[in-house]
Write a structure and sequence with these properties.
Blueprint lengths: L2 E5 L4 E5 L6 H9 L9 H20 L5 H15 L18 H18 L12 H5 L5 H37 L4 E2 L11 E2 H17 L1
Antiparallel strand pairs: 1-2, 3-4
Helix pairs in contact: 1-4, 2-3, 2-4, 2-6, 3-4, 6-7
GO molecular function: aspartate ammonia-lyase activity
Keywords: Lyase
Organism: Catenibacillus scindens
Length: 212
């Protein structure tokens, strides 16, 4: 396998030549082999959306030149559309409050932007993961924001599944309405009650919470 040599504050590593990720992503993958699960696709999309917004803002503010900004934005659009997802290799569970995920995104975007500008992956004089892609950002800003965006993106699916759960509880309430059971003394209703009422209570609780 052909490699390229990349350096960080710790030292150097041999990165696969055709990889869009870089040395910090590779080091994170080696250090945090915890769950074996990769970043959720919607979380990747949220991360990259933030990077795109940052490039647009930094360019408008005059801190990032238009050529680099355009390449970064194009790279982000490609990832958002579904490309290069196999380059996000860090574990979903990691130390450093998400620094590894942030750098994984920075490096993939930078190397793709480099390529779009006619350079070779790993030549960070063209587009730098920290200086350009991560400009005016911090992991402490990016990761919580990406998390919130991901919740918003996934919320419609969650509501759909909760609706199905509610319907299932109400169906069981009808099915078991004729079954008598012992009262629940820990909840101070130590009288006979129907099993269906237990399921109905769960369904009503969901309905009240969803309205609030």
């Amino acid at each position: 396998m052909k490699t390229r040599t990349e350096f960080d504050s710790i030292g150097h590593l041999e990165v696969p030549k055709d990889a869009y990720y870089g040395v910090q992503t590779l080091r994170a993958m080696e250090n945090f082999q915890i769950s074996g699960r990769k970043l959720h696709p919607k979380f990747i999309e949220s991360l990259v959306t933030i990077k795109k917004a940052a490039a647009m803002t930094n360019c408008k503010a005059g801190h990032l030149d238009s050529q680099r900004a355009s390449a970064i934005i194009m790279a982000c659009d490609e990832i958002i559309s579904g490309k290069w997802r196999n380059q996000f290799i860090v574990d979903a569970i990691q130390g450093g409050a998400g620094t590894s995920a942030n750098m994984n995104a920075n490096e993939v975007i930078a190397n793709r932007a480099i390529e779009l500008l006619g350079g070779e992956r790993g030549d960070y004089s063209v587009v730098h993961p920290n200086d350009h892609v991560n400009m005016a950002q911090s992991t402490n800003d990016v990761i919580p924001s990406a998390g919130k965006l991901t919740v918003i993106r996934l919320f419609p699916v969650l509501l759909l599944q909760l609706g199905k759960l509610h319907q299932a509880l109400m169906d069981k309430a009808k099915e078991f309405d004729h079954v008598l059971k012992m009262g629940r003394t820990q909840l101070q209703d130590a009288v006979p009650m129907r099993l269906g009422q237990s399921f109905q209570a769960g369904g009503r609780s969901y309905r009240c919470n969803s309205k609030s």
